[in-house]
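ENCODED BACKBONE
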Amino acid sequence: MNFYSYMRPKEAASYLGISINTIYKLIFEKKIKYSKPNGKVVLFKKEDLDEFVRSGEIEIRNQ
């Protein structure tokens, strides 16, 4: 059984070290994987965020 750690946009932005506006820009440009299970709330899997970082699409700041 797979268990995923989900994050909302604010949490994902903090995790990636980017602004919330950048998160929404990445969603709009379809550059980052996300889901909207109920049609309203945007959620990100931690694994997808890690994959996004590994892809080199974004440079993470040291926190």
Q: What stands out?
A: The first strand starts at residue 6 and ends at 7. Residues 6-54 form one domain.
